[in-house]
Amino acid sequence: MTENVPEARATIASLQAVRFFAALLVALDHVRLDGSELAAKLGLPFAFPIFSGRLGVEIFFLISGFIMVHITTGENGWRTRPGRFLRERAIRIVPGYWLATLTVVLIVAAARLHAAGEAPSWSAIRLLTSFLFLPHIDPPFGLRVPILNQGWTLNYEMFFYLLFAVALAFPRRRGLIFLVTAFVALAACGQLISWTVGDAAAPSAGAPLVLAVLRFWMEPIILLFLAGAVFGVVRQHVSAKWGLPRCRHAIPISFLLIALYSCFGIAFGDAGALRLPVAIIVVGLCCMTAEPPEAGFSRAALVRAGDASYSLYLFHSHVFLLLAAIWRRTALSQVSLEVFPFLALAAAVCVSLAMHRLFEKPVSKLLRRLTGPRPRPDEVQFAARW
User: Fold this and answer.
1) pTM higher than 0.85 for the full model?
2) Boundaries of domain holding 103
């Protein structure tokens, strides 16, 4: 059986599952660090495998590029205007990120009051840039991550959305040409600067701050968005001309590839030469195949987890921090620390599911009602999930 054009726009279950796997990779990477910090404070041994959070980020970027093409393409061109696109992206991304960032600010403020100023503080410019998805450059130290550490990836996401909105202002063919030209030119300029002046372009070397900020968006990692967009264009063409092949095992194959890399790829120093092909193969498999008609319990559960993957990405560090504080101050400190990562991850997944249902969905619905005009039902479905 093959997939027709209307089906091609349906939610892709395997891609949702892979989004959950990617968010889980980031959480696994961070729980090891938090567990090690907790062990150091308690003076206890702790061992946990190393996972590649970077692989999770690269999968996210590929999926983002694909989905933006997938949800905006109609039969004869773009099906979304730039303004509506940016509105839907802001509704989807901003509330959760602002809440996660504000929570960190409040936690640290409380810690400073409790510890008489020993907790870290941030400048007004770092607070502002963190909330506005802008890279923050501190001249003595160079590039600083946002207040919510994992928010650096959203600085790339929002930049991609802006460029994609520009592409939507053109006819589809010209818009895609603009997108390819812009991303390739930015990445090429970044490499040219690195080859010619190197560290001399860093703010610590006296280079203009504007150049340092622009260089953040010139890193080769931006090409992952472009690669994902190419998957979107190819999928539409193949689906319309020949139909997509069915693949019943896209989810287990993707999980197996990610697991194999997690088990053996790290031994090579988390090398991009191995990591990048894994990310491309996993996302490409899900993008270029059709879903089986039946939906079992496990697939439905993974889709639900994928729906909540953004909340998992944003709030897992909050859960780890809270659990570590409870662990230090209660009888849990007598429990083996080997249990900590599993409890922390289970709690983070539960919190993400609750945040998606109780915060993301109702806030998005409210903002769409307030900002109108009312989008079509299919646009709401895509915006809510992606």
Assistant:
1) yes
2) 5-385
